[in-house]
Amino acid sequence: MTATAVAPARRTAARRLSNKVGRVRELGIVVALALVVIPTAIVNPRFIQPQSLRDLLLNASIVALLAVGQTLVVVTRNVDLSVGSVLGLSAFLTAQQFADHPGTPLIAGIGFGVVVGLACGLLNGLLVALGNVPSLVVTLGTLYVFRGIDYALAQGKQVNAANLPDALLNLGSSRVLGIPILVLITIAVIAVAAVYLRSYRSGRELYAIGSNPEAATLAGIPVAKRTLTTFVLSGLVAGLAGALWVARYGTVDAAAGTGLELQVVAAVVVGGVAIFGGSGTVAGAALGALLLGTITSCLVVLQIPAFWQQAISGALLLSAITVDRLLALRLAKALRKTEGTSHA
Amino acid sequence: MRNLLRWETALVFLLIVVALTGQVSTDGSFLSGGNLFYLGLDIGEIALIALPLTLVIVAGEIDLSVASVLGLSSALIGWLWNAGWSLEMILPTVIVVGALCGAFNGLLVTRLGLPSLAVTIGTLALYRGLALVVLGDTAVADFPASYTSFGTTPVPGTNIPYPIVLAAILAVLFGVALHASSFGRSVFAIGANEEGARFSGIRVKRIKLSLFVLAGAVAAIAGIVYTFRFSSARADNGVGLELAVVAAVLLGGVSIFGGKGSLFGVLAGVLLLGGLRNLLILQDTSTEVLTIVTGLLLLVSVLAPSITRRVGTLRKAAS
Q1: Which terminus of chain A has a lower count of CB atoms within 10 Å, N or C?
Q2: With respect to CATH, is domain A20-336 assigned 1.20.1260?
Q3: Which of A173-177, A185-189, A290-294, B238-242 has the lowest mean pLDDT?
């Protein structure tokens, strides 16, 4: 008698804890952001002037875009390490397209970059879904293949801002209501992806695949098709990010975006997307990207040598997955306790 | 097992094809003593790191931080040398630091149960970052010639470079450990079925931890070889080398899912990768194409088993 009365109470306690764990992540990032920004602003008040905040958002927006695509992939218990190379290839080809054909309409040129990214993503997706090969190895391979193609096509050349149309460069610098257009595009992509993951059947199925691939197959979810889709979307977003990279920086060579995959994976993990798959949100991943970008800017403002930056981002990634794991262990323990009482 | 044997036969066959093509297309200079010396030097670090990494992957884990440990050990050599330490003191210190880096990876994986992929992507950044912190973007090059001469001279009377001698000794040790000891059987058992291994009394966590420690220590040794071979201690030494090592191990027939593979196959994989790259360099191929070829080899080596399996089931279905 008492057992049945106690069990629901414990169960709600466990549910409350699991909700808290979810919320704690995004709240944690906001707190961490505050902890980073406030001391920096006290040391150097110029850090929170509108112009420097705009720069902060601009710098984070490209990584945030890639993090959105990566979230879709990681949620299904896969990973896409080739995003930096896809961005580089798309950036160079887009820039070359604009430089070689000065009359190219803005949308067509950016669309070209998106198509390049989509093709790369399709190749990744086909290899992973049909070849039945772990995505880590496939995308580690294509990371080098895409970058190699990028270098082979560029042959040491670079495209300068002088050869690019003003419309494109304006896209990188102009603002609407004080907010840079690039940031608005990023927010739009985040919103679309968030709605897709939250409210669409195929979006929810991605979480099911990541939680338990076998069970997802048995439940009739087309796992291979969904996996292919996530890689295509990740490639597409990386292609878009490549085109926007050109708009933002104006000068592009074959090395654009080298090593970016590490920052992206770090942003996604810091943002609370479980590397084991099955949980996480695009908003969290984008906040993760913002936090990492902010820390880099703060290190510059506080005049900490650039050499520390890589070590710090590595340490951040490690602490994020450790905290994540400890929270998951606590949650599992609480859930087990509930189950124990209900069986009794 | 039969599948494995066939894969290794195919590798040896491919090696012979590469050697013969190389010999014919370069008018005999591919297999000349001088070129073999440089080929050996070129694959030295890859061969060294591939040995412990094979054990790590057979046990079902991965270590992507090895190239960063190599860089960190190179940076430490330069920093300690600048600080006036003697090389007799520096070298053991560096190997211990490498082992500690491996132990850190191993503890995060075994004690906290974190996936080794995520952990070693993190430490890939962390260790490379520490290397930059230690040495910045400077290079230290004033090492005594007695330590750096092996980069230009082979073992007297032969064309064998010293790093290959070192790799061969370690290969025998690792070969015995993996294929002829109870430790090695445990490693295979863990990779094939971790839970089953634990229930049969194998100390899974301890063995995995020791594999990560070995990988760190050997990566530090590879860092020493790299530093003295080029007589240059830099923080960015060996950036991206983890790809070549992982590619060589997988090319050698080791399953990325663990539980399958042989050290002989891995050595053949290292030779094949090194031979192909050397041949392409002899023919003035650009480094971009080399990168593409390495990436493609990695893709082919993971796709091949999956394709043969599919062909096998198709054939079974047809008969």
Answers
A1: N
A2: no
A3: A173-177
Question: What local confidence, expressed as pLDDT, does residue A64 receive?
Answer: 93
Domain boundaries, chain A: 20-336
Q: A296-330, pLDDT tens digit by residue?
A: 888 777 777 778 878 887 887 788 778 777 877 87
Q: To the nearest whole angstrom, how far is the Cα of B90 from the nearest Cα of chain A? A: 23
CB of B245 within 8 Å of a chain A CB? The answer is no
> Could B118 and A321 be called an inter-chain contact, meaning their C-beta atoms sit closer than 8 Å?
yes
How many domains would you assign to chain B? 1
Q: Which of A213-217, B198-202, B226-230 shows the lowest mean pLDDT across its residues? A: A213-217
Find the mean pLDDT for residues A191-197: 90
Among residues A65, A29, A52, A46, which one has the least CA distance to residue A183?
A: A65
Cβ distance of A310 and B125 shorter than 8 Å: yes
Kindly tell me if the per-residue pLDDT of B1 is higher than 60: no
CB contact under 8 A, A148 and B292: yes
Q: Does A147 reach chain B within 8 Å, measured CB to CB?
A: yes
The whole-chain average pLDDT of chain B stands at: 88
ipTM of the complex: 0.81
- Confidence band, pLDDT 50/70/90 cuts, at residue A96: confident
Helices (H), chain A: 2-43, 50-75, 83-100, 106-131, 135-154, 166-173, 181-199, 201-211, 213-218, 223-249, 260-270, 282-301, 308-343
- Say if CB B56 and CB B43 are below 8 A apart: no
CA pair distance B238, A96, nearest whole angstrom: 31
**Nearest Cβ partner for A310 among B129, B296, B303:** B129
CATH number at residue B163: 1.10.3470
- Structural domain of residue B261, as residue ranges? 2-318
- Can you say how many angstroms the Cα of residue B38 is from the centroid of all Cα atoms in its chain? 18
**A–B interface: beta-carbon pairs under 8 A:** 134
Cross-chain CB nearest to B302 (options A137, A144, A276): A137
Whether A307 sits inside 8 A of B129 (CB atoms) is yes
